[in-house]
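Entry 14. Ran structure prediction on the chain below.
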Amino acid sequence: MPRNDNLKKFMPFSDKMIICEQCSHEFLFSVGEQKFFAAKGFNHPKLCVACKQTKKTTKARRLIITECALCSIQFEIPYKPDKNNNLNCLNCFEKQTPTDSVS
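Output, structure tokens:
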């Protein structure tokens, strides 16, 4: 089945107002943005710029609370640990002696 890529090239673009799915405010989806989205094959945006930025920064700051394998205190790490991975807090990590010594 042929794609409608050729039709997209000839569709007239005009500024559109879109309602943000998160905050329900209207935002402008300009002709230039529409052309860019069409060229990349993207769907129209669902979030306004402010909500996209909030989502991006919130996602980047998410920390996971885990427990030290040696002293059992809780501490935060920026990634989800493997279940088989024994993690140590900074104090316990610094107290450990290296198992391999360089001669």
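The chain has four helices and four strands. Will compare against last week's run tomorrow.
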